[in-house]
Amino acid sequence: KSKISDPIFKKGNVLNFYGEIKEAEDKSTVNISEVEKIKLVELLNPDIFEIDDILNSRLNSFVSIEGQILKINKKSFYIGDEDSKLKIKFKDLGDLKLQKADNVYLRGIVVNDGDTKAISIRDKNDVLIQKVLSEEESIFPSSTIESLENLQDSKKDFLGIIILSISIVLVIFFFVKNKLKKK
Hints:
Elements: E1 13-24, E2 27-40, H1 51-55, E3 62-72, E4 76-80, E5 85-89, E6 103-113, E7 116-120, E8 127-130, H2 142-182
Parallel strand pairs: 5-7
Antiparallel strand pairs: 1-2, 3-4, 3-6, 4-5, 6-7, 6-8
């Protein structure tokens, strides 16, 4: 058995909690006195599920999903399309910047959210953003590609000028050499 302040707990630990449940008005709290670590479960990347599959899956399942962000709130965002959407909950994503229309791959735990289910993300490492870049943001916008093509054309032109110059110098050299031999 370990105390709660024990730093040996990691993501993937399966734990038993010991404590006392207190009920006050319409709220219940649990005062945890001890925690027992049972085992460590390796959290691999689960198969990618569809929204309907997640809504029908067991609570506390570790799942992954891909989708487009439809709406962003302070502690949640929604992914999906016009037909179906799924709430994604989080506590802190650190410096991760999410925007509407970003395509994301994420993994998390299936949790209750009122009368439906949602996914709870553990931290920013559970989210991979695949941004859709505009032409201005693109790694190679069309103006850059045109510039690269113009640069390649310029290199060809420059190489042609060098070859022509060398050819002229060689012709003059042989012409002068032959003139000097005749004298």
